[in-house]
Amino acid sequence: LMADELNKRLDYLINNLKAYKGFPHVKGLRNSIKSHLYRWGKQQEGMTIMWLPILREDLWKKARARKMDENLLKQDWQQFQLLPANENHLQIEDNRGRLLAYRGLVNTEPLIPPKKVKSHSRGTTVNRHWGLWRKYSIDPHMSGDYLQDLPNSQQWLDANKDLFQHLTDVLRLLDPQMYIRYISIKDFLPPDIQPACGAWYACAINQDMTMDGIAHLDRSDYYCGLNVVVGWGDYTSSKLVLWDLGLVLELLPGDAILFLGRIITHNTVDIQGGVRNLVNCFVHQTPLSWKDKKVEELTGSKRRGGPGKHDKKGKGKQVVQMEPKEKKRKREDSNVDIGDLDKGKQKQIEESDGEMDKEMGGILNTDDEMEIMYAAHDGEDEEFN
């Protein structure tokens, strides 16, 4: 049974989702991916999984408010549950088993050219943004900071290429559909204007952090997209407060955390022992909206989102029971390659929740309700973008 489920998962990842297109292999793509999944499973041994009595849709509804919830920030974060750093992975899920945050381990010691210190919501730090951008313009372009800091900006991105690839591999393992959603923009862009940080379009680099940051939402980010933060420096410990979840995560130098920065209010506090630097890789909503419009122009079909609701299943985990819905439906595959559009290969995908649950083993995290809810308000948040 386990072998059969693995083969179905491999079929989906390779043939349906095409999440491993271009993946390096020697003894066959299927065997390489199987080994990749096995190694990931070994890394996750001993992982802590937290289920919270909250829904991602509710976080999104709160995040759409123009003003921060004052009552939320009146709480004392020191009374929140503290999750100390340790060698095991940590996965935080909502009440339907959908990913809210994930903490793992990486190591990097990047060198970045100096820049003037200024104060902002992440604290008083040296701050810049390098990568794909679409603020105040019709088409995507490389950010002003990136262009101004050339050639240092590209040299640093090249030097950290292995780090970004490692983080991209983690994203593909955690949520392969989100990975495909992110990289689907590449074929619509010219070669000199591309995502800068693996699957993520750009990064914010904050240096010389010693003070607490201000609680905030990353309002320009893709509304249900994971960003990833990695810290380095001579500090010994720091904490990330996730206000809407009532949690505080300890982060050590080299720790990486993926979380929904657009819908979870957060800030860094209690930096101990020295100076903290971080790189925050993200995907803004506006480039993705631009790409979706390009697909709509080519196909005449408007994106409605992912393949539906899924109960999260996994070994040793409680399963949230949801009302079964076996009604079949069709949707457009909006993450199709641009080359396939010319060949008429964009297809209607017919599926049912039950079939997809069995086929995917609950791996998908995108939810139709959130996609439709966001689409209804798409463009209303342009002032934040």
Notes on the structure:
This protein is an alpha+beta fold. Helix content is 30%, strand content 23%. It contains twelve helices and 16 strands. The strands form three sheets. Strands 1, 3, 4, 5, 6, 7, 8, 9, 12 and 14 form a ten-stranded mixed beta sheet that branches. Strands 2-11-10-13 form a four-stranded mixed beta sheet, with no helix packed on it. α7 packs across α8. The longest helix is centred in the N-terminal third of the chain and has 15 residues. The C terminus is likely disordered.
Summarize the structure.
With 385 residues, the chain is α+β, with helices and mostly antiparallel strands.
Distance, first to last CA: 47 Å
Instruction: Give the total of beta strands.
Output: 16
Shape: globular
Low-pLDDT stretches are 108-113, 117-122, 306-370, 379-385
- What does the average pLDDT come to? 80
Number of helices: 12
Protein structure class: alpha+beta
Computed Rg:
20 Å
Give helix and strand order, one letter per element, not per position: HHEHHEEEEEEHHHHEEEEEEEHEHEHH
Helix content: 25-40%
Report the β-strand fraction as a percent range: 15-25%
Q: Major β-sheet, in short?
A: 10 strands, mixed
